[in-house]
Structure formats: structure tokens, C-alpha cells
Design brief:
The protein is mostly helical. The protein contains four helices and no strands. The longest helix is centred in the middle third of the chain and has 23 residues.
Length: 107
């Protein structure tokens, strides 16, 4: 159950961060509401996952790492942001770090 809550927290955070870009500095009030609701929801879900005895280091690494990688891909695919070999390599390193933390936490 903790992993499902964490996945929902990540999805909410990614939605909020994407809306942050679309809000144009909070000029578009509808997107600004999505930002606030998304971040509050994300933190609430992350807190619930932690309450279920998920390790904070693993939870935060997965939450921030997957969120960062997803936002980079969304930016490149849908928001016209550049993707190059260095950025792609960075995403791979983030994912590798999250996997390593999960493997280390399993012991």
C-alpha cells in the first residue's frame, strides 16, 4: 500500500510541476490552482506512505528522482524543451541512484 501511495504522490507532484510551467508565473489562475492542489496532495500522500513504515531515504529518493526524470521527459516531449545526450545521461543516473538506494534499503 505504501508504494501505491508513493506512486500517487509522484503523479500528483508531476502534475503540479507541469502546471507550474503552464501557469506562466501564476498568471493563469486555473493552472495556479492545479499547482497548489497538486503539491498539497503530493505531500499528503508522501506523508501517508511514510506513516506506513516506508524508509524516508528510499521514499524521498524515489519521489524526487522519478518526479525529476518524468518532468524532464515531459518537458522534452510536450513543452518544447531541449533533450540532449547529457540530459538523457542525467536521467539514467537519477534512475540508477534510485534503484541503488532501493537495493541498499532491502537489506
Amino acid at each position: 500500500m505504501a508504494w501505491l501511495l508513493l506512486a500517487a504522490a509522484i503523479a500528483s507532484e508531476v502534475l503540479a510541476t507541469t502546471a507550474l510551467k503552464l501557469s506562466d508565473g501564476f498568471a493563469h489562475k486555473g493552472w495556479a490552482v492545479v499547482v497548489v492542489v497538486g503539491y498539497v496532495t503530493s505531500f499528503a500522500l508522501l506523508a501517508r506512505a511514510l506513516k506506513l513504515q516506508m524508509e524516508i531515504g528510499v521514499a524521498y529518493a524515489v519521489w524526487s528522482g522519478v518526479g525529476t526524470a518524468a518532468i524532464a521527459v515531459i518537458g522534452a516531449l510536450f513543452l518544447g524543451e531541449a533533450m540532449n545526450l547529457a540530459k538523457a545521461g542525467g536521467i539514467v543516473l537519477i534512475i540508477a541512484g534510485v534503484v541503488l538506494l532501493n537495493l541498499a534499503g532491502a537489506h
